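ANTAR domain-containing protein: structure, please.
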Amino acid sequence: MGIASFPQEFAERAATILDHGLEVSVTMRQAGVSVRAGSSSDAAARCDQAEALDDAGPCVDAMDAGSRLVVSVEEATHWEQWSRQARAEGYVSAAAVPAAVADDVAVALNLYSRTPDPWTPELLTAADSFAQLVASAVRLRLELAELEDSTAGFYRDMSDAVATERAVGAIMQTNQCSADEARRIIDSASRHRNVSQREVAEQLLRALVVSDPSEDERGA
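Here you go.
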């Protein structure tokens, strides 16, 4: 199994097409868990990883509220971990552009700028369109995963322990964190949403993880 590549591809494409020297990350929030799914630069990735681990930042707030945020990094001290990392990377301003995927599932583009105010209406409209494209791709991924489960019982046949450990691995890979930190994220989401850790893990796996190719596909 591996992490789906499309969020990374969308982040890189958005940075290229939106231009303005922007660096872009894609974050997904599901079942109360935030994970960085792809980034156009290492610096943007580190900012989104700090935000995901602290579960606090413009992207998280934008997804929870369902509305776009444009912020000054220097003034965003209420998001302590994110703002510290963003300042360390040399960013001056940022925009978080969310899009709904399904109930309790959202994505957002985090746009990072080293200049104070590149946020023209045209740029933000284009970012909204990119966020909707990412949401559509995640929605399709979820639908395919549910179809796969119904026909092959892929997730249904996993034990609770296996599903949780695979989700731990996915969070470790996307957020660049330790196993203990990943388990704390799943446990916190489970408690706050009043659902089992298995349910949190399975939802994350459906959205983020792709199955290993079959022997035939590898041969091809």
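Notes: Residues 1-208 form a domain with the Beta-Lactamase fold (CATH 3.30.450.40).
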